[in-house]
Structure formats: structure tokens, C-alpha cells
Amino acid sequence: ITVLFRPIDKIISVIESYPKGIAGFKRFADLMDTEPDIVDSPSARKVSDLRGDIVFDKVNFAYSDDRPILRDITLSVKAGETIALVGPSGAGKTTICSLLPRFYEIDSGAITIDGIDIRDMTQDSLRSQIGIVQQDVFMFGTSIRDNIAYGRLGATDEEIMDAARSAQFDSVIAQLPEGLDTMIGERGVKLSGGQKQRLAIARIFLKNPPILILDEATSALDTETEMQIQRALSALSEGRTTLVIAHRLATIRNADRIAVVADGRIVEEGAHDVLVAKAGAYARLHNAQFGAWAAE
Ligand code: ATP
């Protein structure tokens, strides 16, 4: 295991997921290829145990020079708070999230966590403070144990089972022929999409980062699985600063705050009720996505 994991030690926090590109998902491998572009500054320091106070201060960003994507993004998320990013497809929600682990370098402005500019942090340590859950989960063709322990190398079986329980994945393990030793992938069992997601959540419970980025699934799972994942995710976000790219009404309503992203800007921000009363961009979006208020 040591031999297997050593080379990927460094990318542990990134491999869970990867931001989407233009044509759907961007593989994390592609992202890793872009990584050497960004080099730690010589004075970068290691951070740990961040509280998770996040500030985007007048952030501008473009993937290429000719087309600005994010314009003047200013956003604060207090430690422990959950903010839902909503808005039309292509508005920039994923891009906002991918700037936090510094997958890309911003063009101007600043992003700070606990008052420290993320450019002054080593990328390894920054990413150790962030957990990401996306639809597509990276799996190794090894045991269930190793796949969960990937969240924190060297975790004991007890810690792994605790994380599995928190992620509602323990019932899956209980049904597997060899429990934690069960191999997955070509030589072993095939996990369903919902099971993989819970495994990914277990990894993050184990990693225990103060900051969470959730890219909520749009694809339909059966109701039971859906409920288990929702429960696991809300337990996971408890006490962590959470940025969620939200598609479900329940998630949006339960968030402490909603930021409406349109054409690379934040056009509205506030709690659900406040934004509804405002009858502006959020109300329109909500109507279009979830039907008229009267119909609820
Ligand atoms: P969705 O809800 O569809 O996921 P989104 O709000 O998350 O959309 P982004 O994925 O952040 O939007 O995309 C914002 C803009 O940036 C889009 O115009 C998209 O085409 C562009 N874009 C996204 N990723 C890349 C990339 N890797 N290279 C170039 N352009 C990109």
C-alpha cells in the first residue's frame, strides 16, 4: 500500500474530484497537467487547522485572455456557513469553486482564508483544508479499505468504519463478501453511482477538512439512495464552511445564504425568503426552475 500510495500522496486532496470543463467533466488528470503552471511562492507557508473564513475580494478571472469569465466577484463566507451558488448553466459557479483550491490563478483581486491570501499558502497545505464532492468519483482498483483510507493515509480500521458510518456507507460494507477487504473494480465488485458517492463522502469525513465544496448531482438516483446521500452530505457540511453548487430546492432553501451567479457576476445575495421577497433574479430563476410559488 505504501508503495502504491506514495506517488499520489501529494495529490490527495485534488483527486477526489475535478471541475467541469466546457464539454462536461474535466478529468482531474487534465487538471493535474495544468498544475505545474502554478508554483508555490518561495515565501508560501504551510497552513493547517484553518477556521474557514473565506473571502473573495473583487476577483476577476479568465481561462483565456480573450474572454473574461468572472468579473468582480466579491463574496464572504463565514466559518461554518453554507452558501448555495445558483444560476444558469455556464454562469461561472464551478469556476468560482475551482479558484478556491487554486486550480487556476486569478487575474486580479484576492481570495483569502482566515485573512491569509491563498497565494501565500503552499498548495498542498491549502488543499489539505478543502474537501470536494462531485458526481464523478475517482476509484482505485484496490480494496474498499484503501479506497476510503485515501482520505487520510494511515487511518485505522476503526477510523475508516467511523467515517463509513457517518457517510451512510457502513450498510454497504456490511453486505460485501469480504467487508473492507473487498476488492473493487475489474477484479472485484462494481459499486453503484450512489455507493461511490457515499464512499467519496466517507473519504472526506476521514480527511476532516474545515472547508467543503459540493457540486450537487443533477442525475437522478432512486429516492432511498438520494435520501441517504442528502443525510450524509448535510452531516458532512455541519460545522464546515460549505460552498455548494446547488440544484435542489431543499439544498438551496437550507443554505444560510444564496448567491445568484449570472454571466460571471454575483447579481444577488441573501437568504431564500429575503430574495423571494425581492422578486428579482433569484425569484425569476426559482420560478423557471421549480415552478410558480403558488404551485408549491
Ligand atoms: P454549469 O451549471 O453548467 O455547471 P457553471 O455556472 O458552473 O455552469 P462554469 O462551468 O464555471 O459555469 O463555466 C463558466 C464559463 O467558463 C462557461 O462559459 C464555460 O464555457 C467556461 N469554461 C469552463 N471551464 C473552462 C475551461 N476549463 N476552459 C475554458 N473555458 C471554460
Automatic annotation (TrEMBL):
<keyword id="KW-0472">Membrane</keyword>
<keyword id="KW-0812">Transmembrane</keyword>
<feature type="domain" description="ABC transporter">
    <location>
        <begin position="54"/>
        <end position="288"/>
    </location>
</feature>
<keyword id="KW-0547">Nucleotide-binding</keyword>
<protein>
    <submittedName>
        <fullName>ABC transporter ATP-binding protein/permease</fullName>
    </submittedName>
</protein>
<dbReference type="GO" id="GO:0005524">
    <property type="term" value="F:ATP binding"/>
</dbReference>
<keyword id="KW-1133">Transmembrane helix</keyword>
<comment type="similarity">
    <text>Belongs to the ABC transporter superfamily.</text>
</comment>
<keyword id="KW-0067">ATP-binding</keyword>
